[in-house]
């Protein structure tokens, strides 16, 4: 995996990919490179105007791209269900890549349409529900992968299983870190359950290091803190890497041959650099934690995974 870059992406012709949050930043860079290498790409974005603008941009950047946009609001489980139910006309029964990229970071306290704390509800529960609803397509597709984007900041906080929605207290960065720990625990438990079912679907995780995207300033912008926004923009521009570089970990996890299940791929030195296996906190690989989060996630979302699959997929 030394100095892995987009030139290492194999031909993706004939493969299909859903990328959440693909209207900008890491998601757009991921979708663009998959399309550039021949994949049929669906941009799944909350905001229709931004999603359509991203689609136009992608078609300009990659004139040969086979791509489309569909609305998906991960902070609203009815939107997740509608999106999944309408996906039958996207590449039939197959889905090669599900890129769980969309997310929110360090917001002032907000709740989703279903009453969940916004960061946990969007970053984890929305993607948990989406993956479960699209699981039949993934199971029916040889070589399918699920890549969930986490963060090195996951290491700041383990989950509080007695207060998953931060109902007792809310600290925005701790809530963000917990949601990113949830992403890794979800990947770990999904890997275990896929293996138990005899499936060859690979679940992996990735992170962008310190990437310069609009995610960094969304929280302070919502509060109108323009001075803080300028400071963050300056620091990010000074230290952060571009979205194109930040997306390399996701692209590597999605396309590199022989990717190990439950891998966590990101910049070699943590913040910047070529993709490599990354450090992850020990609590994100504990089976008991994964089982506990999984049970809670099924109860909260009402989505129960079915790991049965057609005989042709074995």
TrEMBL record:
Belongs to the short-chain dehydrogenases/reductases (SDR) family. Keywords: Oxidoreductase. Gene3D superfamilies: NAD(P)-binding Rossmann-like Domain (3.40.50.720). It comes from the Bacteria. This is Oxidoreductase. Transmembrane segments: none annotated. InterPro entries: NAD(P)-bd_dom_sf, SDR_fam.
């Amino acid at each position: 995996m030394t100095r892995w870059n987009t030139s290492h992406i194999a031909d993706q012709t004939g493969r299909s990919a859903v990328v959440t949050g693909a209207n900008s930043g890491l998601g757009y860079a991921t979708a663009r490179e998959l399309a550039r290498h021949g994949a049929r790409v669906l941009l799944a974005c909350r905001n229709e105007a931004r999603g359509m603008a991203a689609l136009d941009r992608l078609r300009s950047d990659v004139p040969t791209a086979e791509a489309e946009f569909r609305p998906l609001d991960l902070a609203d489980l009815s939107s997740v269900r509608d999106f999944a139910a309408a996906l039958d006309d996207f590449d039939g029964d197959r889905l090669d890549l599900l890129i769980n990229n969309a997310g929110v970071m360090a917001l002032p306290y907000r709740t989703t349409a279903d009453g969940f704390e916004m960061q946990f509800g969007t970053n984890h529960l929305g993607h948990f529900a989406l993956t479960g609803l699209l699981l039949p397509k993934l199971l029916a597709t040889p070589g399918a992968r699920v890549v969930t984007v986490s963060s090195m900041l996951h290491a700041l906080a383990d989950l509080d299983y007695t207060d998953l929605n931060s109902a007792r207290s809310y600290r925005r960065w701790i809530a963000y870190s917990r949601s990113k720990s949830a992403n890794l625990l979800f990947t770990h438990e999904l890997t275990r359950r896929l293996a138990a079912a005899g499936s060859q679907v690979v679940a992996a995780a990735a992170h962008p290091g310190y990437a310069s995207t609009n995610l960094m300033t969304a929280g302070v912008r919502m509060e109108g803190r323009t001075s803080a926004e300028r400071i963050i923009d300056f620091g990010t521009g000074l230290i952060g890497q571009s979205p194109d570089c930040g997306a390399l970990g996701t692209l590597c996890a999605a396309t590199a041959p022989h990717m190990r299940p439950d891998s966590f791929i990101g910049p070699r030195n943590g913040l910047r650099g070529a993709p490599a296996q990354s450090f992850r906190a020990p609590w994100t690989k504990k089976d008991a934690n994964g089982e506990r989060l999984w049970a809670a996630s099924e109860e909260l979302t009402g989505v129960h995974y079915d790991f049965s699959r057609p005989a042709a997929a074995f």
